[in-house]
Structures are given as C-alpha cells and as structure tokens.
Design goal:
389 residues; mainly beta; Pectate Lyase C-like; 23-stranded parallel beta sheet; 2 helices
Length: 389
C-alpha cells in the first residue's frame, strides 16, 4: 500500500502545483479537444473552458509518464465542463499517467467514464487519476456503471461525487494498487444502484478510505463479486478480490453496507455504519466449482455500528464460505430502540455494547460524535489517523 500512496502523492504534486513540463492549451469545444488529445505528449496540460463537450470522447494509447503526466482539467471549479448524454461520455483505452480533473459527467446510458487496458491483459493501464469529477444520472437501470475500471494499476479516484447510477458507482475488474478516497456516493430513487464500490475479477491491494455512502446500492462496498472467467486480469485467480482495505468510511443505509464475496484477506476497519437495512455484513460465495477458494479470512475491527431492531440479521452467511475464519475485534454496537446484541459467525474479542455514541448530523458528511466515553474514542470513522490504513 505504501507504493500506492507514493504514486498518488507524486501525481498530485505534479498536477496541482503547476509543474508544467509540456505545452498548455485551452479548448472550448469537443472538436478541438479531440484534436489536442491526438497530439498530447508527456507533461502537456489541456485546459477545458466551461461548456458542453458532448460524449463519446475517445482517449486511446496516449501516454504520460510518472514524472510528467498529462493533465486534462476544467478551468472553473464552479462551472465545470460537462460531458453529457450518449452511451459513454469518456473512454480511456490503453493509456498511462493521465489525470482527469474538474468536470461533470451526466446522463450516460451505459458508462459515464470507461477506463481500461484496451484488452491487453498483460499490460495494464497505469497511473490514471480521477479528481473532482461529478457523475450523475447514469443508467438509470441495469449494469450501467458511473466509473468503469478494467485492468488498471496504480490509480487514484479522489474527491469525486456520484449521484444516481445503474450498476456500480465504481466497478473495478482486475484492478491493482489503487486508492478511492474522499468521495461521496448518494443513491437516488429511480436508479437500480446495485453496488456503490465493487472490486472483483482478481482485484488486489485497493484502499477505500474516507468516503461517504448514503443509500449507495444494495451493497455499498462489494469486496469481490461474480466475474466471467475470461475477464479476470491479468489472469484467472482463485479469488475475486484480495487485500482490499475499507477504512474510515461513513455508511448510511443500504441493504448491506459491507459484502465479502469470494474474497480473501480483506479488512474493514474504523468505519461508521448507521441504519443498515437488512444486514451489516454479507459473507458470500458467488463463484461455483473448485476453481475458487471459499470466501475467507476477512477482518472486521474497530467499527462503530448503530442499528435498530428492523435489522434482519447481523451477518448473512452464504453457502460454501468459511465464516469461522473471519476475525471480529473491538467493534462498538449500539441498538437505538432496544438491547439487541450482535450475533456473529465467530466470537468477537473486546466487543463494546450499548454505549450511545450520541451522534450529531448522523446522516450527513458532517457527522460528529458527542460521547466522551473513552471506549469509543478509537473506534469508527472519526478515529481514523494517518497511520491507520
């Protein structure tokens, strides 16, 4: 994970501090944008003036470098360029070290942004950054993802907002060494919203940190999934997801905020989970046969869970899984309308029960905890420190 953070920091510094090493061009329309993309070189900056740039912007085999990424950015944060309508707004295929920043993606019927390795599974796209992008009204139903990522390494999604989508807000297939942080995922009526963030198809070493999820799909974070065998990247594994870390997030609602699905060695730590609708956690096996290991070795620790008696079950355990290998430790559980205590598939150590956290603005990103009880100080999203990853 250290490599991920170092890569992200380097890319951000180069783009945010104005370290322009190539040309800088301002464009005002889709035609000029396409023309500039065709000749973009490492270090170039393409500035997007406010306006509607349509859809179907194809970015293929364009390569920045780690030291000199290509930056494509809106010039006015308050009035960002809009990519609207059509099947897909922006497609990136087989590109390296490109930063997309300060833009709005709206009304796509398939995917908002689709970024992939172009089908070259052994040479993933590297160093893509998606920063301060609003995704809205994608789909609205079916397998329609706001941000579709396939075969990406060393990528970052930060400070983005997702509002209304069909399949997943972010769907990762065979992605590795990535960070998703400081984003907002807001589910809306009229959109199917199956999952908020999903990592599957052999995805590994993904950090999902400091995000806000509100009614963000049936499974707000789906650690794993069910992927066609031909789509695993770089090759077929015996797991859907491995070493995924979900840390310091704030969840409101969803049928299940967390689902471990055909996954192994994944960690959910220091999150605040409020009013889950059916389950707090699901442990599932959605890949049949002997090719895949059972879902196993999940960690769930130092989370703050506030629930009520409408909760159907604390942990939904599916067939052909190994729930006994899951580790539960130091979670705080508070039932708002009774004394119902959690029932877990393996014994929890140092659990904390029925201490009211006294939450303020519980269903907004401005959540605060008024309780001064020292047992709650180091639990939940509010307790996340820089060393907690």
């Amino acid at each position: 994970m250290k490599t991920i953070l170092q890569t992200a920091s380097l890319i951000f510094l180069l783009s945010w501090n104005g370290a322009v090493r190539g040309s800088e061009t301002t464009v005002h329309d889709a035609k000029t944008l396409r023309s500039e993309l065709q000749r973009a070189q490492p270090g170039d900056v393409i500035l997007l003036a406010p306006g509607n740039y349509g859809n179907g912007i194809w970015i293929e085999k364009i390569y920045g470098t780690k030291k000199n990424p290509i930056l494509i950015t809106g010039t006015d944060i308050r009035n960002p360029p809009v990519f609207a309508g059509g099947k897909t707004a922006i497609l990136l295929s087989n590109c390296n070290y490109i930063i997309l920043r300060n833009m709005r993606i709206s009304g796509s019927s398939a995917n908002g942004i689709n970024a992939s390795d172009g089908g070259s599974f052994e040479s993933p796209s590297k160093g893509l950054v998606f920063n301060n992008i609003t995704f809205e009204d994608i789909g609205p139903t079916g397998n329609r993802d706001a941000l579709k990522l396939s075969g990406l390494n060393d990528f970052v999604v930060t400070n983005c907002r997702f509002s209304g989508w069909g399949g997943s807000a972010i769907d990762m297939v065979g992605c590795h060494d990535g960070v998703i942080e400081k984003c907002k995922f807001i589910g809306r009526n009229g959109f199917s919203q199956t999952t908020g963030v999903q990592a599957k198809g052999g995805s590994e070493n993904i950090l999902i940190k400091r995000n806000f999820f509100k009614n963000a799909g049936s499974r707000a974070v789906n650690i794993g999934g069910s992927t066609g065998l031909e789509f695993f990247r770089p090759k077929l594994r015996n797991y859907e997801a491995k070493s995924i870390k979900v840390v310091g997030n704030h969840f409101i609602g969803s049928e299940a905020p967390i689902a471990y699905v055909t996954s192994t060695d994944c960690v959910v730590r220091l999150n605040t989970i409020i009013a889950p609708e059916k389950w707090v956690i699901r442990i599932l096996q959605e890949q049949p046969g002997d090719r895949f290991m059972p879902c196993q070795k999940g960690v769930f620790e130092r989370n703050l869970i506030v629930y009520n008696n409408r909760l159907r079950e604390f942990v939904n355990v599916g067939a052909n899984t190994k729930p006994e290998t899951f580790h539960f430790q130091s979670n705080a559980w508070f039932c708002t309308d009774g004394e119902r205590l959690p029932s877990l598939p393996s014994k929890e150590s140092e659990g904390i029960y029925q201490i009211d956290p006294e939450l303020v603005n519980a269903e907004t990103p401005d959540l605060k905890m008024r309780s001064k009880n020292p047992r709650l100080r180091d639990l939940g999203a509010h307790a996340l420190g820089n060393k907690d990853r």
